[in-house]
Write a structure and sequence with these properties.
This protein is an all-alpha fold. It has one domain (4-200): Hypothetical protein af1432, CATH 1.10.3210.10. Helices cover 69% and strands 0% of the residues. It is built from twelve helices and no strands. Helix 2 (24-40) runs parallel beside helix 4 (72-79). It is globular and about 45 Å long.
Length: 201
Amino acid sequence: MIPYNQTSYDRYDLERELTDFLDPIDIHRVMSAYDLAEEVHHNQKRNDGSPYFFHCARVCKILLKEINVQDPDILIAGLTHDVLEDSPTLTQEVLAYNFGEYAAFIVQILTKNLDEQKVDPDAIEKAHVELLTKSPSDCLIIKLAARLDNFRCLDFQLKRNPLVYVNKTNELYLPLADSSDNQYLQKLSEELKRERNKFLG
């Protein structure tokens, strides 16, 4: 069996599954986002040694297959949620031109200043959480889907201090989901808690 952190979401499988509920124009938008994310993250590796793009593809898979998100803007943002952080040339305007204003807006909300984060990670994280409380719930949906994927990779040395990552998710992000009546957030919260409990024993 392939280890979870080495799995992805095959392009053919995604496109085939999108045909069940999206029109051709939106399918093209989502697949273009898949291709863009794959290109941006092409030479990147995660701390566990896996291709970075696999994470982005799995976030899309969680959104579509596990919590049944069918909104193309959310799927696009899920695939591209890290591209502004990791590309020196991409901008929110370029994303908006290619994928629409709303998907680009979500990605911008999810983008942190990595240089500032190195200097004061706690302050940046708290500011990020505060921003999420003022943003559409779609932003938090993608954030938690990404955290869920990361939880599932903790056994593969993804994080230097996995316990800190789990506790921060528990303290900062899960309360946002638990205070919402959004069905997607509720499902993600349940799954995050299940993975948390497995990790903590």
